[in-house]
Design brief:
The structure holds 2 protein chains of 2 kinds.
Chain A: E1 2-3, H1 9-17, E2 21-23, H2 29-34, E3 42-45, E4 54-55, E5 58-60, H3 65-69, H4 76-81, H5 86-89, H6 94-100, H7 106-111, E6 115-118, E7 121-124, H8 125-130, E8 136-140, E9 150-156, E10 167-176, E11 179-189, E12 192-196, H9 198-204, H10 214-224, H11 235-251, E13 274-275, H12 278-281, H13 291-295, E14 311-317, E15 323-329, H14 331-335, E16 339-343, E17 368-369, E18 375-381, H15 384-393, E19 395-400, H16 407-410, E20 424-431, H17 436-444, E21 448-456, E22 468-474, E23 477-482, H18 487-498, E24 505-508, H19 525-535, E25 539-542, H20 545-551, E26 553-555, E27 558-566, E28 572-584, H21 590-599, E29 609-618, E30 623-625, H22 632-650, H23 654-661, H24 681-689, E31 703-715, E32 725-733, E33 736-741, H25 750-762, E34 769-773, H26 790-817, E35 824-827, E36 830-833, E37 843-844, E38 851-859, E39 874-886, E40 892-902, H27 909-928, E41 934-935, E42 938-939, E43 958-963, H28 986-998, H29 1009-1021, H30 1025-1028
Parallel strand pairs in A: 1-3, 2-3, 14-25, 23-24, 26-30, 28-29, 33-34, 40-43
Antiparallel strand pairs in A: 4-5, 5-8, 6-7, 6-8, 9-10, 10-11, 11-12, 13-43, 14-18, 15-17, 15-19, 16-18, 20-29, 21-27, 22-23, 22-25, 27-28, 31-39, 32-33, 32-38, 35-36, 36-37, 39-40, 41-42
Helix pairs in contact in A: 10-11, 18-19, 21-22, 22-23, 22-28, 25-26, 27-28
Chain B: E1 2-6, E2 9-13, H1 19-26, E3 45-48, E4 51-54, E5 67-69, H2 78-90, H3 99-112, H4 118-124, H5 136-153
Parallel strand pairs in B: 1-5
Antiparallel strand pairs in B: 1-2, 3-4, 3-5
Helix pairs in contact in B: 2-3, 2-5
The chains are: A alpha+beta, B alpha+beta.
The structure holds FE2/S2 (inorganic) cluster (FES) (2 copies).
Chain lengths: 1032, 154
């Protein structure tokens, strides 16, 4: 790109006339390019030529929005607070926002009747937008002349802050002697064209303020506003929120009838709860060992590796959802100077397939592509530019195939096949084995039935570090370093693909910048390995976010049809469940996800009769797999909403309803399997009953408040069928106690847990420990860092190895000190003698010399049930949410979360709290804003501009987390998994809270603000309470 | 070539090179992260003359003679040093990939506004996505840094 800096406005105008693009702050261009616009050949910076700064009501076009935001300009400063984020606003300019034509500020500028001064003369905002000639120099805003004009501004987006505009509205009104004397109303922003609402203005002008028929006004505005549909919101939604926003802003929020609320529970005695916080934790709150490097930017992630001579790798993606590959021609790419390797399926010596459950996913596609992110070829070149160029030179000839766009359709006869094995990947059915007669009778005996289809989204993991890493020849084989969740399994899968013995492959998987299940399956490793092998050089490769969005696995969307019946007293008797899910193009762990969902089909409740069927379909919609919660959270959403709805029908409060239905402690699990002791459901219910969350709380004047709860019940470990084993070791090396554990640090606090568990057990300091993790050469295979199994693996590993290791250390010390080892003890820093009244050890660990690893091999606790996959160990919790429903926008905001957990002893308090808080907010995203819709096999969201993960403003104001840490006296199983608990029951807690606020249970997540508005509209229509009774 | 200062040291960048690309790809300064490349995640946040901006939205021509501070230069900033301490105490991060950006956004705030209220802290973080923490540990760290600065002022 050419950057030509003009010396005068005249020169700038000339350059622009010949195709140059004027740029001031330049903050909007990257986004436009990511959305498909071609970057211009020439930029013409004009920032130095146009006025900057604010003088009275005149603002230089070059003024950064962040400056205006703090300048107290009527309407405009408030509007600026809603444009992008402060860091972007420092770059973005006022002129740029207007010249772009879609800027959020435009409605505010129209309402302020701004005069646009350009090099071609002065004009109004609308005139400028109609014929945007000349370079904008300044804007003069002209608030209505009145000593206190009313003004309103509202931007409605997709989340609480830093969002694209769905529609923004701005209004200004002056009133003289009770009559409306001046008025400017405008809408626009994003996809909505800027518009001044002249008809509504004319209708209002002169009216007496009190006499305005607000319903009529809203209808008039809705009719006048022209707004488009987009992939995220309809035209009708845009019109109605803009109209409602303007009316509420100028005339006050409408009065609304009372709504029906959930009954409040009776307080039960509180179980023992540990408050998880720094102040309450005191000595238990320690700085995590990985924190100092992380806060200083000193931690080297695997995608940060740079070395001289390191090549840059890129992957060629299909870019089409379903097609046969007719030919792949790489000759031009190979001939490009600087290209060191081009690989395709032809370079794969072993099995061209991977997959944790079955190997249906090609490392590089040979004959067919099944989703847009399918990899077809990869290149390694001397730099990024050459690699990109080489990709564009690879010619793949395709024959497009009909696209399977929907799970239900995928299972119809005559639908094209994604794989030859058929579109049905798996089907899981179980039940209590009733005869038809028993089944019919059960249904005949119920007093209340609730039937609903719950829909859960295709959530994206959204780890901040996208998939990537580096690989290099090492010895007779390869070293492959890429963020992952189970190095030994990656090693095994790679050995199959490369046809290379596992001993020749060393895989490093830590540290990882977030995974959440999305790096459990192989990601970029096959391409990296093939490139390093073929080029004989080190290669690095890091997916751009856009590529990660397209290629990465997502959460399996589910359609859960659940019909539940209870008797008049609230005892649930019978339940029928039918689940449909899709895995996209490849299975990965999706069959396990479905099985897990089915295993949680009755939740933590005893239901005498149930039947359940689940089906998983292939489609061409991306690819899905493991994601924190692993199906259990989807099913919990359904069952926990059913509980509240039935409670409402029976006149019970949510706690009482659940109490009546809790599974008997110690009874078999849903599949009839034995389950571990320490069930803590009653304690969690008691904690929920006594929560302060049920107290009234303040919300904004245009919101309704609601409180909801749900129980967490999450199976830990991989289940009965997969191998679930671990190796672990303790060694002394160079004065440090090495914890040898092949799990991965992805942020969850593995290292902190290792330090905590080892030091607690041995009596040394946390700082005496060094964690050797995530490296198949130096750490043993401890299994996968998934399924909330890490906590147990660490604890048990320490339990198994510590006694012998301690004996070895003390034995060594006894030799050196020439005394009996039973007079010695481990203390921080080394070894001391009993009775020595000193803090300093008489031998440091370094004095002992190295001690060879003490190793252990053990199984994750399992049941003996093998007819299906069943969990043995469960973790428990109760999640409560306070929410506010916005009456203007229909958007739901979480005000507070409270979570009580029962997952055994907490090893490292900060890590445990972090897992809960992070899980809660991640699940808040799936409940309120996150989804990855597909259109004709193409993902609709391409990056973080339209995929909406929670922002700091979406996070609740308060989060409180407690832990009930006790174990049953004979419980030998230690800490339960904490990784998945946080996400487990957020969706139903929020949905139940929404129902508390408006009497309606959202069954589709993310919850559609439009649906909420429709429900609320129906209230105003039937505005007396008696008709409300029928809604519960 | 455009002249500027990177963490106090004179440096050169092409006028049309994106700053984040220059840092990570051209000179291997990978302490600054990349998460979206379109200004929507804040992983690439650096200070330009003390004010946080997105390095994926800024090209060489926009930083002529500017002082660019990345996380690598954080400890040269008084507010940065306090923030580091506070984040360590509060365990602000999990995977830490967002940290280089978050730390710069907050340092930018604390440098100009030594006693920001909670709302200002939240606004300063609006452009930084963190997928791991749910933000509360970050907010606790930021508030502790503010309180520590308050204490040193007394
Ligand atoms: S990489 Fe710059 S904001 Fe995301
Ligand atoms: S700590 Fe992982 S993204 Fe913030």
């Amino acid at each position: 790109m050419k950057i030509t800096r003009p010396d005068s406005l005249k020169e700038a105008a000339k350059l622009i006339a010949t195709g140059g693009v004027a740029v001031a702050g330049g903050s909007g261009f990257q986004l436009e390019f990511s959305q498909g616009q071609t970057p211009p050949a020439q930029y013409v910076p004009i920032g130095h030529l146009i006025p900057k700064g604010i003088q009275g009501l005149t603002l230089g076009a070059g003024t950064p929005l962040e400056e205006i935001r703090h300048a107290n300009i009527p309407l405009l400063s408030k509007a600026c607070a809603d444009v992008a984020a402060p860091n972007v606003r420092r770059l973005a300019t006022l002129g740029g926002n207007l010249a772009w034509g879609k800027g959020c500020l435009i409605p505010a500028l129209i309402a302020l009747d701004a005069v646009v001064e350009t090099t071609e003369g002065a004009m109004s905002v609308l005139e400028y937008l109609k014929a945007p000639f000349g370079i904008i120099l300044s804007l003069t805003v002209r608030p209505l002349e009145d000593n206190k004009p009313k003004s309103t501004w509202r931007k409605v987006g997709l989340r609480q802050a830093f969002t694209a505009s769905i529609i923004a509205s701005a209004g200004m009104m002056s009133v003289k002697h009770g009559q409306i004397s001046g008025l400017r109303l405008a809408v626009g922003g994003g996809a909505t064209p800027p518009q001044r609402l002249y008809d509504a203005e004319a209708w209002l002008l002169g009216q007496t303020l009190e006499d305005v028929d607000l319903t009529d006004l809203r209808h008039r505005m809705r009719a006048e506003i022209s707004a488009p549909d987009c992939a995220f919101r309809t035209a009708s939604y845009r019109k109605r929120v803009a109209a409602a926003g303007l009316v509420a802003g100028l005339f006050g929020a409408p009065d609304v009838p009372l709504h029906k609320t959930t009954r409040r529970p009776t307080k039960m005695p509180l179980p023992e709860l540990t408050e998880l916080s720094r102040s309450a934790g005191q000595k238990r709150w320690q700085t995590r060992p990985d924190m100092p490097a992380k806060v200083r930017g000193k931690l080297l992630y695997l995608t940060d590796k740079r070395e001289a001579q390191m090549l840059v790798g890129r992957i060629l993606r299909a870019g089409r959802p379903h097609a046969r590959i007719l030919a792949i021609d790489t000759s031009k790419a190979e001939a490009l100077s600087g290209v060191k390797a081009v690989v395709t399926h032809r370079d794969i010596k072993g099995l061209n397939g991977f997959g944790i459950v079955f190997q249906d996913q090609p490392a590089l596609c040979a004959d067919k592509v099944r989703y847009t992110g399918d990899p077809v070829a990869a290149v390694a070149a001397i730099d990024e530019a050459t690699a990109s160029k080489a990709l564009s030179l690879i010619k793949v000839t395709y024959e497009d195939l009909p696209v399977v766009t929907e799970a239900r359709a995928a299972l119809m006869p005559d639908t094209p096949l994604v794989h030859e094995t058929g579109n049905l990947v798996t089907e899981v059915s179980h039940g209590r084995g009733d005869t038809e007669l028993e089944w019919t009778e059960a249904w005949a005996n119920v007093a209340h039935i609730v039937e609903e289809t719950y829909v859960t989204p295709r959530q994206m993991h959204g780890f901040m570090e996208t998939e990537g890493g580096w690989a290099a020849p090492e010895g007779a084989g390869l070293l492959i370093c890429a963020g992952g969740q189970h190095g030994a399994r990656d090693q095994m899968q790679l050995s199959r693909i490369l046809d290379m013995p596992t001993e020749n492959l060393r895989v490093i998987t830590s540290p990882t910048g977030g995974a959440f299940g999305g790096k459990d399956e192989l990601t970029v490793q096959p391409a990296l390995a093939l490139l390093a092998q073929k080029s004989g050089q080190a290669v690095r490769l890091h997916l751009s976010r856009a590529e990660s969005v397209q290629a990465g696995t997502k959460r399996n969307p589910m359609w859960i049809k659940m019909k539940t019946g209870c008797d008049a007293k609230g005892k649930v008797i019978v339940q029928d469940v039918d689940v449909l899910s899709e895995c996209g193009a490849y299975a990965s762990l999706s069959p396990g996800v479905l099985e897990t969902a089915m295993e949680h089909v009755v939740g933590p409740y005893a239901i005498a009769h149930y039947r359940a069927r689940g089906r998983l379909a292939y489609t061409n919609n991306g690819t899905c797999g493991a994601f924190r919660g692993f199906g259990a959270n989807q099913m919990t959403y359904a069952i926990e909403c059913q509980m509240d709805r039935l409670a409402g029908l029976c006149g019970l409060d949510p706690v009482d309803m659940r109490r009546r239905n809790l599974r008997a402690l110690g009874s078999p699990g849903v599949l009839g399997q034995a389950v571990a002791p320490t069930e803590r459901l009653p304690e969690m219910l008691a904690a929920a009953s006594a929560s302060r969350m049920w107290q009234p709380f303040a919300v904004k004047e245009d919101e309704w408040a609601g409180v909801g709860m749900a129980l967490n019940y999450q199976g830990n470990g991989l289940g009965t069928i997969p191998e679930d084993e671990a190796d672990f070791g303790l060694a002394l090396k160079d004065g440090k106690i090495q914890a040898l554990c092949g799990l991965d640090e992805m942020g969850q606090g593995l290292i902190a847990s290792l330090h905590a568990a080892v030091s607690d057990k041995l009596g040394c300091d946390r700082a005496d420990i060094y964690a050797v993790i995530g490296d198949t050469k130096h750490a043993p295979d401890s299994g996968s860092t998934t399924a909330a199994r890490g906590g147990y693996v660490v604890w048990r590993g320490v339990e198994e190895t510590a006694p012998a290791f301690q004996a070895a250390l003390l034995g060594r010390a006894a030799q050196i000190l020439n005394c009996a080892s039973d007079t010695l003890a481990i203390v921080p820093g080394g070894i001391t003698k009993f009775g020595l009244n000193t803090q300093t050890p008489c031998l440091t660990f370094a004095d002992l010399g190295d001690v060879a690893p003490v190793q252990a091999h053990y199984l994750f606790p399992k049941t003996n049930y093998t007819k299906g996959n069943a969990r043995f160990i469960f973790a428990f919790g109760a999640t409560l949410a306070r929410i506010a429903v916005n009456r203007i926008t229909g958007m739901v905001r979480v005000v507070d979360f409270e979570m009580h957990t029962a997952a055994g002893p907490v090893m490292d308090m900060a890590s445990y709290l972090g897992q809960m808080e992070g899980g809660l907010v991640q699940a808040l995203g799936a409940t309120l804003t996150e989804d990855m819709p597909y259109h004709a096999g193409h993902p609709v969201a391409r990056n973080f501009d339209s995929y909406m993960m929670p922002n700091v403003k979406d996070a609740p104001e308060h989060i409180r987390v407690t832990a009930h840490e006790s174990l049953d006296p004979e419980d030998p199983f230690g800490p339960r998994g904490a990784g998945e608990l946080g996400v487990g029951a957020v969706a139903p807690a929020i949905a139940n809270a929404v129902a508390d606020a408006i009497g309606f249970w959202p069954a589709i997540t993310p919850i559609s603000p439009e649906t909420i508005l429709t429900v609320m509209d129906s209230f105003t229509e039937m505005d007396n309470l008696t008709t409300m009774e029928g809604r519960a | 070539m455009i002249q500027f200062k990177l963490n106090g040291v004179p440096a050169q960048i092409a006028a049309d090179a994106m700053l984040v690309t220059y840092l990570r790809e051209d000179i291997g300064a990978t302490a600054t992260k990349i998460g979206c490349d379109i200004g929507r995640c804040g992983a690439c946040t650096v200070l330009r003359d003390g004010a946080p901006i997105n390095a994926c939205l800024v090209m060489g021509w926009q930083i002529e003679h500017a002082e660019i501070t990345t996380i690598t230069g954080l400890e040269t900033q008084p507010a940065g040093r306090v923030l580091i301490k506070a984040m360590e105490i509060e365990n602000g991060f999990q995977c830490g990939y967002c940290a280089p950006g978050v730390m710069m956004s907050l340092t930018g705030l604390l440098s100009v506004e030594s006693l920001p209220d909670d709302a200002m802290i939240e606004e300063a973080l609006e452009g930084n996505i963190c997928r791991c923490t749910g933000y509360h540990s970050i907010l606790r760290g930021a508030r502790l840094a503010r309180d520590m600065m308050k204490d040193t002022r007394r």
